[in-house]
Amino acid sequence: MSRSMSKFQILVQIIVIGETAMAEDRVKKYFEVWNKHDKEGVGKMFADDGSLRDWEVEVKGAQNVADANGKIFQSAPGIQIEVLKIHYSAATSTASAEILVHVNDADKTVLKVVDVIEYNDAGLISSLRAYKG
């Protein structure tokens, strides 16, 4: 760190680094639960009024999010997500995760996806928007 940085600037930088690490852990935990196909666990990670939107579905409410994921798990029993990179903004409490969705079907389909995940003050997901491409 530069000698010209004040103690306050150093403290702020330490806080931001710590917050970013905690946020990345939350994102990783979400995908760990998702990869276990634990639909109820996924639902518990969302705020009561949390929402999920992707290229096929848009739902609101933690239970509806859980149910939507449950349908994915039923229709693609081998589906798994590989996290490539996580980007976090402390200013907006938002993480973007670059992921590969391994459908594990006969065609060996792999989808390139970016999930944009917003968190509320309680650390629960308030919005998850998934973009394919």
Automatic annotation (TrEMBL):
Pfam families noted in UniProt: SnoaL_2
Ranges where the SnoaL-like domain occurs: 27-126
Designated name of the protein: SnoaL-like domain-containing protein
Species annotation: Guillardia theta (Cryptophyte)
